[in-house]
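Re: beginner question about structure tokens

> Can someone show what the tokenized structure looks like for a real chain? I only ever see the sequence side.

Sure, here's an example I had lying around. Input first:
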Amino acid sequence: MKLRLLASTPAIETLIATAMLTTTSGASPISLFQGLSIKQAKVAEIVGRLEVQHGSILEHNRLDWLLEAGESEVLKILLANKFFTLTRLVSNEWLMSANLRTVLECQTEKNDFSKLLLESIKNVAPSVYAFGKHTY
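And the corresponding structure tokens:
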């Protein structure tokens, strides 16, 4: 099985931090986003405070991967979590889509796929990646 991240929501952690702050701040979401866009250390600090029970915050994004896997492997993925979207491209290549909440929920599986999935977000969502490494 091979997995390669193709695309993700731009400024994914800034968007998550904005979503987190909108529940406690009177500022507008766009003001929060613009302020956080120039304060990446603050973004990392806010996202670093994620709590598993507030997973809905991690739904404000989308990631797309190229998955090379057989049908039985894809079936296991779909049965393990209903929030993956998979589309066959050719024989054993699939376009897979999900959000960061789904990525973290998969970490409870502790299998090769969950490891590949977590590693794939390391560069686009480093704080969420660190959270996943330490939590699961």
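Each token stands for a local structural state, so reading them left to right follows the chain. The chain is about 45% helix and 20% strand.
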